[in-house]
Specification:
Helix content is 32%, strand content 21%. The protein has one domain: UDP-N-acetylmuramoyl-L-alanine:D-glutamate ligase (3-Layer(aba) Sandwich). By secondary structure, the chain is of the alpha/beta class. Helix 4 packs across helix 5. The strands form two sheets. A ten-stranded mixed sheet has the order 5-4-1-8-9-10-11-12-13-14, sandwiched between helices. The chain has a four-stranded mixed sheet with strand order 3-2-6-7. Strand 4, helix 2 and strand 5 form a beta-alpha-beta unit. This is 1-phosphofructokinase family hexose kinase. Belongs to the carbohydrate kinase PfkB family.
Length: 338
């Protein structure tokens, strides 16, 4: 095992099929697509793919049959994946991508996981977490999975020595925070909608009132979360730490081609920077740079370091509007290729 390894769990993996539209989608019309592409997906898989594309050590754990197409696709990409067998094929998710960057998602239901399969996944995570730097629990849970399963996994993984990051939403996210300190991850990556849901306020309030956003983030720290990476889409991200650290970052101007997987790539960038020993502000910078690079690519493609523009990200101490910190002289993220 490697202290620079990242292990990801994708309980609800997918084959991500991106269909490129010639214009806005018209209901009832016959559409002649500009193209189509399929990538192995699911949030944890995307994180692992982005880390591997940067030369990092990533091990995706997922439920899938031995000869499922997602297993073939990940193996072809050189990822040392760990699978727990299930009988049904991995679902397919469809993204309808318009030329202006608008994406419409059509997600199939996932493969239900019985108690034995969940136990086998937890065992695989514990095995590979030992000696690793991070374990990432990411994405939705399949039908029938208890909402509190992520909270249970955090408690199970606590003594492995690995840090734990969680990126989920809706009932699994609420159950995670309801579990208290035992279910609190080291890093939580909500977006504005998810943070608003947890705080019982509107997304507009989170986006428009810094005091509301800070109060909502503060409740996460009170429940034991050490670091909160709040992603804000085209407005960048905010990083808050339990010891009072607070930074915000705005992305460079890009032409958005697809936002699918951009949040996953942001998380991957954050973890890559952490593995490189970067300080919090630079971890945030790399996270935002990776998210922007992902959004500039088609479908659910993940960026390489050469496509990531770290110096173009504006980082400030505090909430947006503060004076920018200086750009790093030699950022790990590299330069963007346009």
């Amino acid at each position: 095992m490697s202290g620079r390894r990242v292990v990801t769990l994708t309980a609800n993996p997918s084959l991500d099929r991106t269909l490129s539209l010639p214009g806005p989608l018209l209901e009832g019309a016959v559409v002649r697509l500009l193209g189509a592409a399929t990538e192995p997906g699911g949030k944890g898989v995307n994180v692992a793919r982005a880390i591997a594309a940067a030369g990092g050590d990533a091990v995706p754990v997922l439920p899938a049959a031995e000869h499922d197409p997602i297993v073939t696709a990940l193996t072809e990409r050189g990822l040392p994946l760990v699978t727990v067998p299930v009988s049904a094929p991995v679902r397919t998710n469809y993204t309808l991508a318009a030329p202006d960057g608008t994406t419409t998602k059509l997600n199939e239901p996932g493969v239900p996981l019985d108690a034995d399969t969940r136990a086998a996944l937890a065992q695989a995570l514990r095995l590979h977490a030992s000696g690793s730097r991070w374990v990432v629990l990411s994405g939705s849970l399949p039908p029938g999975t208890p909402a509190g399963w992520y909270a249970e996994l955090v408690a199970v993984l606590r003594d492995t020595g690995a840090k734990i990051a969680v990126d989920t939403s809706e009932e699994p996210l609420r159950a995670l925070l309801a579990a208290g300190a035992s279910g609190a991850p080291d890093l939580l990556k909500p977006n504005a909608e998810e943070l608003a849901s947890l705080a019982g306020v509107s997304e507009a309030d989170v986006l428009g009132d810094p005091d509301v956003a800070l109060s909502a983030v503060g409740t996460l720290h009170e429940r034991g979360v050490a670091e909160v990476l709040l992603t804000l889409g085209g407005d960048g991200a905010v990083l808050s730490t339990a010891d009072g650290g607070l930074w915000s970052a705005r992305p460079p101007r890009i032409t958005v081609r697809s936002t699918v997987g951009a949040g996953d790539c942001s998380l991957a960038g954050y973890l890559l920077a952490d593995l490189a020993g970067a300080q919090p502000a630079e971890r945030l910078r790399t996270a935002v740079a990776y998210g922007a690079a992902s959004a500039s690519l088609p479908g659910s493609a993940v960026p390489t370091p050469a496509q990531v523009d770290g110096p173009a990200v504006r980082v400030t101490a505090g909430m947006p509007g503060s004076a920018p910190l200086s750009s790093p002289p030699d950022p790990a993220a590299g330069r963007v290729v346009r």
